[in-house]
Amino acid sequence: MKICRYIYGLSVFSLSAIFFSCEKELDFEYHDISPLTVIEGAVTQDGASVRITHTTPMDEPMNRVAVTDARVTVLDITDGTLSELVPDKSGNFIGDQPGVAGHHYRLSVAYDGNEYSATSAMLPSVSISAMEFQWIKMPYDYVAVLQVSFSDDPAVNGDCYWVRVYRNGEAYMWSVIDDVLAVNGQIDEVMMTSRKDLSEEEDDTALRDGDIVSVKVTPVSREIHDYLEAISNGTSNGPQIFSGDFCLGYFLAASVAEASVVFHPDELTEYK
Q1: Contacts for 10 with CB less than 8 Å, ≥ 6 apart
Q2: What percentage of the chain has pLDDT greater than the value 70?
Q3: Is residue 96 within 8 Å of residue 52, measured between CB atoms?
Q4: Span 220-235, pLDDT tens digits
Q5: Domains, the chain, ordered by start
Q6: Cα(269)–Cα(266) distance, rounded to whole angstroms?
């Protein structure tokens, strides 16, 4: 299991949180070479979103300017529907055609004389059965532990999941896991979050009474699992997702399950 905070610098490029719907992102920087194209794309039950940027040399400020003069299409390979995405005011290419579980999709991008494409099968959504906080006693303080329980098909081995947590709508932390943790068709993912003594906790990670904590659980392919694990380690760019001309990034067709809870520290019991 790999648990990562959204708010830190690593090594390669900007992986947009929650498929571009949150303000805070994972910050990556690339070594001093010519900028590379970065494509971050997703198809969900709510539609498609693709962001195109460039890598940034390590000695320069992060470049968050989005490319908006590309041609971006998503093909539903299963039924033949082709959608052309258009940039919104934030620079993301958007399409409102919802993804369908079981269908295969191809993202194609034409930009600056180059062609990029990637395919992904859309896996069915999981069911989140529980989401709760408890205190766990650590040598230095009590820490709020978030447990998220969701379904896993016991008949299939090797299923992978991306678990993303948000605090008041902003990216907070994430983990990438597989079904080695499953018991009787259920996975219980446990994440350590905020200390009880907020005077010793960073503002970026502190949870306060009344905060709305949300989780999104996304089934992903083994390739995407390995990609997320690699960039979280900061040691490589992960598997090459796109074919055609060379670029960085990912394309993911995913059914997303969501749940939320309000954080009330005075109501938490101790984790056993």
Answers
A1: 26, 27, 28, 29, 231, 232, 234
A2: 85
A3: no
A4: 999 999 999 998 887 6
A5: 2-123+222-255 (no CATH), 128-219+258-267 (2.60.40.10)
A6: 9
Report whether 11 contacts 4 (CB < 8 A): no
Is the separation of the CB atoms in 130 and 149 below 8 Å? yes
Say if residue 3 is exposed, middle or buried (CB neighbours under 10 Å; 0-12, 13-18, 19+). middle
More confident residue, 152 or 65: 152
The position carrying tokens 């392919």 is 221
Whole-number pLDDT of residue 190: 95
77 CB contacts (<8 Å, ≥6 apart)? 103, 104, 105, 106, 119
**Cα–Cα distances in angstroms (integers) from residue 197 to residues 3, 27, 63, 142, 272, in the given order:** 22, 28, 36, 8, 20
Distance, in Å, from the CA atom of 138 to the CA atom of 77, rounded to the nearest integer, reads 51
